[in-house]
Amino acid sequence: MKAMMDRQEFEAALRQIGAERYHHLHPFQKLLQDGKLTKVQVQAWALNRYYYQSQIPVKDASILARLQTTALRREWRQRIIDHDGQEASDGQPAQRGGIEKWIALTDGVGLDRSYVETGEGILPATRFAVDAYVHFVREKSLLEAIASSLTELFSPTVIGVRSKGMLAHYDFISAETLAYFDKRPVQAKRDSDFALAYCLDHARRPEDQQAVLDALRFKCEVLWAQLDALYFSYVEPAMTPPDAWRPGVGMRADAT
Asked: Where in this chain does the record put each Thiaminase-2/PQQC domain (predicted)?
């Protein structure tokens, strides 16, 4: 049995996982932000990433249902609002959610939103990886479920690099296309600060700490696997599975 780490050692171990395993290191991610993908490859990324985005509120609702205090539920509920949006009420303006903003991204690269929303054409590995994440959150302990969200510790810097690179290199990408990413660094910082504090406070035994570390590794693998599938299917060797999206399918009428 490993010895119990102190708070600083435990946080350092979590951050080391991100340094070694977060998907900013993946070849597909580097090609994307360096402007070295074709429009078709960017479209494939946008389409497949939509399925991941669409399932984030689903996994967050599972966590929300297990939280035992009003304060914790209020904190976690904001994540769902961030992604699902909120209608105007009581003098408060409507809030456009992350899913709607991602549809704006797929619109911007020429995909038909009704096609995107059906989930047709996504890669089998995308579906398997995302569904595995949702199942993990439902089936594991609350501590492990919350720990799996700690990849947000590493996303703010990556988002900035990705957005800057895409705007610089792709003439079919605009600031409005990438509006999803405008608020994500702030939201991710808020959410990861909470999740990190929760895990540091509630991992009270060596086995708890190991479970948190394993949960974060698992989530990194979920993100990495999605990019593996995109690279294999649309970059090299470009072996696209049957029924997966191909150029010309699911395109907006004005984009064909």
From this structure: 12-228
Question: Which segments of the chain does DSSP mark as H helices, in order?
Answer: 7-21, 27-33, 39-64, 70-84, 98-108, 113-118, 124-139, 142-147, 155-169, 184-202, 206-234
Q: Does the structure show a pLDDT above 80 at 88? A: no
d(CA 143, CA 121): 34
Domain boundaries, the chain: 7-86+96-235
Q: Who contacts 166 (Cβ-Cβ below 8 Å, separation ≥6)?
A: 32, 33, 35, 42, 173, 178
Q: What is the pLDDT of residues 68-85, one digit of tens each?
A: 999 999 999 999 999 999
Supply the pLDDT for residue 96. 83
Tokens representing residue 218 in the block: 């698992």
Residue 78's pLDDT is what? 95
- Specify the 3-state DSSP secondary structure of 114: helix
Which CATH superfamily does the domain covering 7-86+96-235 fall into?
Heme oxygenase-like (1.20.910.10)
Q: What is the DSSP string of 66-87?
A: T--SHHHHHHHHHHHHHHH-B-
pTM exceeds 0.85 for this model: yes
